[in-house]
Give the backbone structure.
Amino acid sequence: MGFDAEQIFPCLEVLSTVTAGVFVGGAFYINVVEHPARMTLSDTESCHQEWMESFDRAKVFQSRLALLSIISGAGACYCNPKKGLPFLIGGGLLATIFPYTLFILKPNSIDPIYDKEITAKKSESVIRETICKWNNYHMVRNFISLPVFVGFVTYLASNHKKFW
């Protein structure tokens, strides 16, 4: 029982492209729409609570989208190494989001305000500043994922001739 790599390849490249697009769309939405709306809440406790609830939902959704794009991109490369190479490269770039989150974003802007016991000891201005700092760090995800998505779309639109 095998599979026809040439039949699966188009599905994997489209899946990688769509999930990368939804990822970058979600990341932009968070930075451009959700964060500014959150910061209009006059009550810092409500602002922080909204950030935590949104963060908990988005981290699951966004990480799954990134993983799906990475895995389907690697699968596309496995099925057709020549035509699939851009999807492997793009998936590799998206994969950098995970260590960036773990080693830069998390210790600098998530951990300081994620635990309610820790934030109870901090001033409202520090909490708000940290949420704004988180948004700035989060924006890096846009700078990583947007070129990947644009590259995927360009590559597909050029019928596998133009990469980046």
